[in-house]
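Exercise: predict the fold of this chain.
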Amino acid sequence: MRWWDIEPVMELELQLFPEDAWSRGMYWSELAEAHPGGSRHYTVAVTEDGAIAGYAGLMAIGDESDVQTIAVADQHQGRGLGALLLTDLITESARRGCAELLLEVRVDNARAQGLYERHGFVPVGIRRGYYQPANVDALVMRLDHQTTNHTEEDHG
């Protein structure tokens, strides 16, 4: 993801997360740390005609990493794009030497939870009222890089 992707990402962000969308400033701040040696890694999935179909972001500090965001446009869901984006984050987390990868997912988002489980994430807790202003709980999930071996073939 580059600075010129922020506007199309924001359009998708507002469509997919109308209640708790990130701001442009949040993306600018994240991208400021997404340089070689920085603590962030952001990627976009682009269609053949150049439209952004999905995006994902990772924060990695020390031996811990966290999925900051992952999103796929409605018309591209169910085609494996979410799995590709997640695999990119898992690979980057492991490349950076992180021992684990954490994420939060809405408790009412069974589809995303299934994706994460298929990639080796396990539930480790609940964050009450995490998603605001809707006051929806988040399921915290964890992937242990030490006990899970991931390859591109595992998730194709």
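Check your answer against the key: The chain has one domain: 3-155.
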